[in-house]
Design a protein that fits this description.
This protein is an alpha+beta fold. Helices cover 27% and strands 25% of the residues. The protein contains 19 helices and 34 strands. The chain has a seven-stranded mixed β-sheet, sandwiched between helices. A five-stranded mixed β-sheet has the order 9-17-16-15-10, with helices on both faces. The protein has a four-stranded mixed β-sheet with strand order 20-30-31-34, sandwiched between helices. α14 links the parallel β24 and β25. α10 packs parallel to α18, α15 crosses α16 and α17 packs across α18. The relative contact order is 0.13. It binds cytidine-5'-diphosphate (CDP).
Length: 801
């Protein structure tokens, strides 16, 4: 902002709701009043309802399907099976990771809950009853519930539908310098090792998935209302799968009740509702129930992590090696940049100055629902950061060094940016040691250590866990990132009306993050139009410009940047209009927030609103009328926020129950557009981190039954269990390449938080020699570790017979 004269009439940025203003979320008004418009609120004339029949078995050959009883039920309009889908080439669909996924099973079912048939009827109850009337004859097959079973030489091949697939390996992938890493390990004084399992978790948005497909034969246009975080990707996928012309497809993602990555993939229910609408020429609604969502839609994590760190006696990290086995379930359906088979797992240790490293990754098919979605996470970053911080603590312990000092000694220094990590990323900026110091100061580190030692004398177990994280947010740049070949940039459109009010549209899709509030703040900052005069719309592919959607905290880094760039182009045109209105040349014009003025006589000015009116009523000769712009933003790099989370706990040695005493969070996400929204994002993320670390359990028994398919078993933390969080915002490192210096924040706390809780419990157990308890760190696991002084694995059970 230029304020070149003492007579400045610049607007007060915070008052007009610009950057740094904690303006209340405008979308909350309708949500709190129950006036949101979700997919299930969509009611169209003549609409029918669809229900899905799911497989009760995790692995079985389908011998026959008899739908005659279902067809006979009054009110049933259509029964779809895999065989019928196959005649239209729709039994299988491509996934976002170049695999295929069954829409409705034809040959076999490959996980419990897989879609086998669906019924379209007058109402959902008739459709459900009719599903139950379908008779499927299954021949059970041996079940694989973890990678060890999947890799066994005699394991049945789950994906025998794929030509040339002779085993259950999805991929092998590696990155880094193997020979250099081997050499560094030869020089090491100490080698530290760690193995752990990041368990399956489910994003579990409160609103389940659903769609309303409305094919209009008269116009040949398909409108799909759908719970999607990425409507333009759905449009492209529908065009591909259903072979409909893209211009005849309109995808509308109305209000979304939480996504967290669960609403990125394309699900069979969407495809079936589309086909049903085309066949019946009536709108067809499908709304998933909670168990359907929990057992069949995108799971996250389920990865076995193994690593070693080469260390010098004085604490310098010389190198690390990592191997991961990822359990992908029956279909490799991750939504992630195409060329990284294990997402951004190779961001591990990016905050540390490690000279050389090597990572290998293997994906394995099992008889589970597809896994690997980025649950509040940038494509496996959560697993990477979790392992990093568990490993760092183990290494500090092995060296007998203080864990905070060990981290500080190995952090990338403030003057080392941009920093090339050993696995290939270029981190942009940060003040890692400062964040750590703020956190340690806030928690009272030294005092706590003294208190902990004293408490131990009395048999009381206190622990302190530190976790740091830096995360590549904002996929991507088009050089390096694509999904199915589609480059990962984004766009924004701004239209300033003649009254100076504006509308912003982007290709992102808010699911509760507050884009309607914050995009308007960016416009207020760039143009001086009060945020209350700016309306934001997302989610309709007929009106929004193209975008890759909202996941991986990419909205602010990419779509938010596009909003700023579009606003700047509008300001450049408005400057010409101001020069025309003020009858001076453009070079004599200065800008201050909300107003252009004549440099030599600052009292002579034209507000942005006056320029807007001139764009429609008094433009200079030869100028195109109107004041609008669409900007495509291809980020030069990812943004790299940083955070330190510190937790103190007390563990009850009798029961293994642990309580959080305090949790301190220091987040540096660059410039904060809306500090209140940022705090909300951090608190939400920490709550999910606490849930993953302490209670959330969705696994599979030895027979492949999903355990945790309802909210009695899969726990969502309430305000009752959730500890209080103390947030610190004093460290701000503006992103050097983002137009307003912002970095992403949406998932940082969910990514970095879990390791802080686990590290705290492990610290409390310090003298037992226990090295690892897998998440969730349930009291019985802690009790087992304390009682038998052994590590506790959370691997899914395997049948011994
Ligand atoms: O992609 P997603 O919206 O999930 O994540 P994000 O870009 O990190 O943004 C989450 C919310 O925080 C949005 O409303 C952002 O505009 C806001 N935010 C902010 O106010 N300041 C930042 N530096 C980053 C995000």
């Amino acid at each position: 902002m230029t304020t070149s004269t003492t007579e400045s009439r610049a607007l007060d940025e915070v008052k007009i709701g610009g950057l740094g203003s904690s303006r209340k979320r405008v979308e909350d008004d309708r949500f709190i009043r129950g006036k949101g418009n979700y997919v299930d609120d969509v009611v169209l004339p003549g609409m029918l309802h669809m229900e899905i029949l799911r497989s009760p078995l995790p692995h079985a050959r389908i011998k026959s399907i008899d739908t005659s009883r279902a067809w006979a039920i009054p009110g049933v309009h259509l029964v779809l099976t895999g065989e019928m889908m196959a005649t239209r080439n729709l039994a299988w669909m491509p996934t976002l990771s170049y695999d295929t996924q069954a829409v409705l099973a034809t040959d076999k079912v490959r996980f419990q809950g897989q879609e086998v048939a669906c019924v379209i009827a007058d109402d959902p109850y008739i459709a459900k009853d009719a599903c139950e009337a379908i008779e499927v004859d299954y021949e059970p097959l041996p079940v694989i519930v973890n990678p060890v079973q999947g890799l066994a030489p005699d394991a049945p091949v789950i994906r025998d539908d794929k030509v040339g697939q002779a085993d259950n390996v999805v991929y092998h992938w590696e990155v880094g310098d193997q020979a250099g890493t081997d050499r560094a390990f030869e020089q090491a004084d100490v080698i530290s090792t760690l193995e752990c399992h990041y368990p399956r978790s489910h994003p579990s948005p409160i609103e389940c998935c659903g769609s309303v497909a409305d094919f209009n034969r008269a116009t040949s246009k398909l409108t799909l209302y759908v719970t999607s975080q990425a409507p333009h990707i759905v449009r492209a996928a529908v065009a591909m799968v259903a072979e409909l012309p893209e211009q005849m497809i309109r995808i509308i993602s109305p209000d979304i009740g939480g996504g967290f990555g669960n609403k990125v993939p394309i699900y069979p229910g969407y495809v079936c509702s589309i086909l049903a609408s085309i066949l019946l020429e009536r709108p067809v609604k499908w709304i998933e129930d909670k168990t359907g969502n929990l057992i069949s839609t995108g799971f996250a994590r389920d990865v076995y992590l193994k690593g070693e760190m080469a260390l010098r006696r004085d604490g310098k990290i010389l190198a690390f090696r990592m191997h991961t086995d990822a359990d992908h379930g029956a279909f490799f359906a991750d939504a992630q940049p195409s060329k990284f088979k294990i997402g951004l797992m190779h961001s591990a240790f990016a905050a540390y100055d490690v000279p050389v490293a090597h990572l290998t990754a293997r994906g394995i098919y099992t008889n589970k629902a597809p896994g690997g979605v980025a649950y509040r996470c940038s494509f496996r970053v959560t697993e990477a950061m979790f392992f990093q911080e568990r490993m760092v603590q183990a290494a500090a312990d092995d060296l007998g060094l203080d864990q905070a000092a060990f981290r500080r000694m190995n952090f990338v220094r403030d003057d080392d940016f941009p920093h090339r990590t050993p696995l290939g990323f270029l981190t942009d900026s940060g003040q890692y040691a400062k964040c750590l110091d703020v956190g340690l100061q806030a928690i009272g580190y030294e005092n706590f250590k003294a208190e902990q030692a004293e408490a131990r004398q009395r048999g009381k177990l206190l622990g302190l866990g530190i976790s740091t994280m830096t995360e590549p947010l904002g996929a991507g740049n088009s050089r390096e990132y694509d999904i199915l070949g589609i480059k990962m940039f984004d766009s924004a459109e701004i239209k300033v009306h003649m009254s100076g009010k504006a509308i912003v549209r982007t290709g992102a899709k808010t699911q509760g993050q507050g884009h309607e509030t914050t995009w308007a703040q960016i416009v207020a900052h760039e143009l001086g139009i009060p945020a209350d005069d700016v309306v934001v719309e997302e989610g309709d592919t007929d009106t929004a410009p193209f975008g890759m959607g909202t996941y991986a905290s990419r909205s602010t880094p990419v779509a938010g940047a596009a909003v700023a760039m579009a606003a700047r182009k509008i300001r450049a045109k408005a400057r010409k209009l101001a020069a025309h209105l003020l009858e001076v040349s453009e070079e004599d014009i200065e800008w201050e927030l909300g107003r252009f003025y004549v440099r030599s006589s600052p009292q002579r000015g034209a507000s942005i609103q006056e320029c807007a009116m001139a764009a429609y009523s008094n433009m200079p000769d030869g100028m195109e009328p109107g004041l609008e712009n669409t900007s495509f933003y291809d980020p030069p790099n990812l943004t790299w926020p940083f955070a330190v989370y510190i937790v103190t706990v007390e563990v009850d040695p009798e029961t293994g129950v642990w309580d959080v005493l305090r949790m301190v969070a220091v987040d540096d996400c660059g410039v904060r557009i809306n500090p209140m929204i940022v705090e909300g994002q951090i608190m939400g993320g920490l709550t999910e981190a606490y849930a993953m670390a302490s209670m959330q359990f969705i696994t599979f028994d030895a027979d492949g039954n999903c355990v945790g398919s309802n909210y009695m078993d899969y726990l969502l933390p309430t305000a009752w269990e959730t500890p209080g969080f103390e947030l610190h915002s004093e460290v701000v490192t503006p992103c050097p390449h983002h137009p307003i210096g912002a970095k992403g924040i949406g998932e940082c706390a969910a990514v970095g938080g879990p390791a802080a809780f686990v590290n705290a419990v492990m610290d409390a157990l310090g003298e037992t020699g226990v090295r690892n308890i897998d998440m969730p760190v349930l009291p019985d696991r802690v009790w087992e570790a304390l009682t038998y002084r052994r590590d506790v694995s959370g691997h899914p059970p395997v049948r011994q017979d």
